[in-house]
């Protein structure tokens, strides 16, 4: 056997797991935020650029107006999304990812790639 833990085995022939560490509170808070129902889909939809409320709703089938409004407020409060109001004759509200929200793009893309590879049989 070598000194690498990956090559060590127990008497039962199993590779021992490394000692578990406490979950980082920052990681836990981030997972709780983006793991809420529809939050990831909203972040994904905004990753291509700003959208208005109706455009967001169309891009995420099954999402209710009430829940979309709630998630948008939560993402804005967390600093991941910005809300811009244009006071023309008709009020226009546009939603976009902030720099912090854009920082999630690689993680969301990696999760999408994982899902496409391993979740092919999902409806």
Question: What does the model show?
Answer:
A three-stranded antiparallel sheet has the order 1-3-2. It starts with 24 loop residues before the first helix and ends in a 5-residue tail after the last helix. The chain has one domain (21-118): Orthogonal Bundle (Arc Repressor Mutant, subunit A). The chain contains six helices and three strands. The chain has 123 residues and is an alpha+beta fold.
Task: Spell out the key features of this protein.
disordered N terminus, single chain, 123 residues, Arc Repressor Mutant, subunit A, alpha+beta, 3-stranded antiparallel β-sheet, 3 strands
Describe the protein's topology.
Elements: H1 25-34, H2 39-46, E1 51-52, H3 53-59, H4 65-77, E2 81-87, E3 91-97, H5 99-102, H6 105-118
Antiparallel strand pairs: 1-3, 2-3
């Amino acid at each position: 056997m070598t000194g690498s833990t990956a090559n060590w085995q127990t008497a039962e022939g199993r590779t021992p797991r490394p000692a578990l560490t406490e979950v980082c509170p920052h990681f836990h808070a981030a997972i709780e935020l983006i793991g809420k129902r529809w939050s990831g889909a909203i972040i994904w939809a905004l990753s291509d650029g700003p959208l208005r409320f109706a455009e967001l709703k169309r891009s995420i089938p099954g999402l209710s107006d009430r829940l979309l409004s709630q998630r948008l407020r939560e993402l804005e409060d967390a600093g991941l999304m910005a809300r811009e109001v244009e006071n023309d004759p008709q009020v226009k509200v546009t939603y976009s990812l902030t720099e912090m929200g854009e920082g999630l793009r690689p993680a969301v893309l990696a999760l999408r790639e994982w899902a496409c590879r391993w979740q092919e049989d999902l409806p």
